Amino acid sequence: MPLELRINWIKCDAHGMCAELFPELIALDEWGYPILDPRPIPPELEAHARRAVAACPTCALALERVPRRPR
Amino acid sequence: MSTATLPRILTGVPANGFISFAQHEAIHGAMPVLSRSRHDNALDLELTESGLRGQGGAGFPTAIKLRAVARARGRAVVVANGCEGDPASSKDRLLLERLPHLLIDGALLAARAVGARDIVIAVGEHATHAERAVEVALSERHDLRSGSPRVRVVIVPHGYVSGQENALVNFLNGGPAKPTAIPPRVFERGVGGRPTLVDNVETLAHIALIARHGAAWFRELGTTEEPGSRLVSVSGAIAYPGVYEIESGAPLSALISAAGGVTTRVQAFLLGGYAGTWVHPELGLQLGLSDTQLAASGATLGAGIVVALPTSACVVAELAHVADWLAGESAGQCGPCINGLAAIAATLQGVQHGTAGDAPLEQLARWASLVRGRGACGHPDGVAQLVASALSLFAEEFADHARHGICDGCARRRILPVSSPLARRFAA
User: What is the ipTM score, two decimals?
Assistant: First the structure.
């Protein structure tokens, strides 16, 4: 099952740590909120993703294994 | 399509006041008692075969939602959602204020099907007669016995997003009427932490009729994908604005004729309300009013909303006005929504007055795509859809405004309604 980043937008406070630590798939908009690359996380970058999740000061970022959705 | 007759839901709708229980039973017959056991849930079966979809805007298959709640762990709760946050919609208010027994039937039937003992009828505070109509209707229900579910009526504060199901459940749990993070989904953990079925009041009215007449009857009208009838709120440059019941898939031209036609030349129809899509009138009139048919034009009917915008109106001014209101209707919880909608609204004001900076239309299009999918609820996506569709259909008008500023139409009274809260928030 692929890993996916999920943002709790209510918790996110635009600290920007995630983009700092995982620039391969996370950019910031002009207000500092993350823009996620919709591509699945390549296995070799999973460590970066985990670091970004761990560093989020508001615990707004999570990494989830998602079953491939029907449809 | 067939010769089956309309109206169904709107049969016997009184011009004033609300229908009595005796009148309701005379029109529709007594509410049936459907069998329900672990392996045989008659309502689930009928709803599955009927193909009924939610009428609150999302169009999710009703049977699937019902089944999810029925199978979830714990004693379920049913919420009849009559919050109706879109100012261009009035069908839910009509049902609550004039035909309360139909949605009460639907809620009782759904409660039995999911094993709920509690029903909440949630009424938007703008529907000023709804509480009394529903309370009186409940007092007339001699079929509500000691074993029947408890029903309470709750008035929900004004707000475009307060009828979103997580926001509504949050309010019913004592919080503000604002969306919450998902998961949990309300069908797993909703009112009081229990599995909760939130159905739009029109959906429940359809359930009341499907339980009586069956799925095959429901399918005598409409299309294969979207069977039956649905309520549509029609407003703008229309001879007789109001709520109409149409066969799902009927052409917009038939609906407009039923509403007495347009009163003047129309430059566009807005389909699906403030999370909706603008369509050119010539194309629009031919369109079949079902989401499947509208998909080709990138449109949906949403909660069943059609607004005819006359050529006398300035679409730029209309959009700037509505976008400003919608930005203010953000629950203020998610950064991209707070900032993105404010930026969109401010830039639209600038475009209208010809004072926006460099390439404002490109900027608007960029923000519209930037905010999509980046909130706890679908509010930013809805605004993005409304704005992006206006920019593409009215590219000339927007370019003109960006260069030359206000036009004659800007001074005219706005066509698109916005609701006014009883008290404005004073921002801290």
Answer: 0.93
